[in-house]
Design brief:
Radius of gyration: 27 Å
Helix content: 10-25%
Largest sheet: 6 strands, antiparallel, barrel
Order of helices and strands: HHEEEEEEEEEEEHEEEEEEHH
Strand content: 25-35%
Structural class: alpha+beta
Mean pLDDT: 91
Strand order of the largest sheet: 2-3-6-5-4-7
Number of helices: 5
Low-confidence stretches: none
Length: about 300
């Protein structure tokens, strides 16, 4: 159903005169139903890892070398060009303090670090992007989907604030694996990765509405918009919210909505086969995938 059809159906079930338009309507009842329906859809998107909102995001790391002139005990750095450098970058060099990052790009030839320099003079340093903005439609992360596809191993994390600061501030901070946390609307990576690594993760999109062209978005904005959610789930949920907003009894509608929601969640995607006697161990190396006999000498 379209937005208009959903509102018309709810109005008919509630005994309210159905509108000929929703988005442009000035009727307070219709405006309220419109607002409640948008909130209802947004809350539903958060309520479950819906397969139609499950998206994959690919990150390709960026790093490059630049000549930079440092002044001892100063955070200001000069370079022939700051092109490509943003506050998402950090400095990766044996001559600089670990986890030094850029806090501002001041001019075409100057940027400022978050820590004062411990070196002086001209040095060649690697500028490595350490913060990768989340997708514009990111609503929530799907845990344990973060992988370093270049090296074929899972990324370590998400790290807590305490773990992150311990790693960045402690004596031992090196390691072969990339650590991550989500902070400030970005995937933060440490230590600074080299150029050309490929990371991937899955997330739930906030775009639960589609328009007539197929473009997705996070709310109804036109009468012809449709949603990924089941029509009955939207209708019953909207009736429940409207009755609650009016101070009326909504217990029957809430029970109907909860039952319908549980059913639709169960039917949204496939489910694993569960065992009463599961076998523990690595899925990558075990008796099930190692051949019998001796290892080849070649």
């Amino acid at each position: 159903m379209t937005l208009l059809q959903l509102i018309q159906q709810v109005c008919n079930e509630l005994g309210i005169s159905p509108p000929n338009a929703v988005v442009s309507s000035t009727n307070p009842q219709i405006r309220q139903l419109y607002a409640l329906l948008n909130r209802h859809g947004h809350d539903l998107a958060r309520a479950f890892e819906w397969q139609r909102l499950d998206k994959e995001w690919i990150v390709n790391t960026v790093a490059f070398d630049i000549p930079a002139t440092f002044t001892l005990n100063s955070p200001v750095v000069t370079t022939p060009s700051t092109t490509g450098i943003t506050t998402n970058f950090g400095l990766n060099s044996s001559n600089t303090t670990p986890f030094t990052t850029v806090i501002s790009v001041d001019s075409p030839t100057q940027f400022t670090m978050n820590m004062p320099s411990t070196i002086a003079g001209l040095q060649t340093v690697t500028m490595s992007q350490v913060a990768y903005p989340l997708p514009s439609d990111w609503l929530k992360q799907i845990p344990q989907t973060e992988w370093d596809r270049t090296n074929r191993w899972p990324m370590l994390g998400p790290k807590s604030a305490q773990e992150w600061q311990s790693f960045k501030s402690g004596i031992v901070y090196a390691g072969p694996r990339e650590r991550f946390r989500i902070q400030g609307g970005a995937l933060q990576i440490s230590p600074p990765p080299p150029n050309g690594l490929t990371f991937a993760y899955e997330y739930i999109s906030s775009s639960w509405v589609g328009d007539v062209s197929g473009t997705t978005k996070p709310a109804f904005t036109a009468d012809t918009d449709t949603t990924i959610f089941d029509d009955s789930l939207m209708i019953v949920g909207l009736k429940m919210r409207w009755l609650r907003a009016k101070g009326l009894d909504f217990s029957v509608e809430m029970q109907e909505f909860n039952n319908l929601l549980s059913t639709i969640k169960a039917q949204d995607k496939s489910a694993p086969k569960l065992s009463l006697s599961p076998v523990s161990g690595s899925i990558y190396l075990g008796t099930a995938n190692i051949p019998d006999g001796n290892w080849s000498a070649s």
